[in-house]
Amino acid sequence: MFRNLLSRLFTDDPEPRPLAAQDAEVAIAALLVRVARADDHYEASERQRIDRVLARRRGLTPEEAAERRAAAEMIEAEAPDTVRFTRLIKDRIALEDRTGVIAAMWEVAYADRSRDSDEEQMIRLVSGLLGVPDRDSALMRQRVLEAMGLDDR
């Protein structure tokens, strides 16, 4: 079902069309996977957090969320560099949804309850590429830290 997502993203259509809801979620999940893998340690806590985020965003069962994440892991592995991949997603996902994606990325980055500069740097890059201002990203980060009961250290 998601196998051709990259070809749909990389269409030569001068007017990119929005992605179908499931395709959009897998593309977003692929960005979440990319953030989790940014520090070269893709841990069970990060996979579980991605599953929870996906389930919460679209009301999926745990099994459906895990299936989407598994598809996203394959997409992420084949996706081009982060800049190109993120720009392709930006052109096909509404701005309101993009801000939620940044909050989800902060959740994934702190799923292992530690701070990692590679993951933070990846989120800042993706945030800018998605058109989400630094200030908004920082506010989302703070909310996520508070909700997870973590310090800003």
TrEMBL record:
| Boundaries of every Co-chaperone DjlA N-terminal domain copy | 26-142
Q: Which InterPro entries match?
A: DjlA_N (IPR007791), TerB-like (IPR029024)
Task: Tell me what this protein is called.
Answer: TerB family tellurite resistance protein
Q: What is the lineage of its organism?
A: Bacteria, Pseudomonadati, Pseudomonadota, Alphaproteobacteria, Rhodobacterales
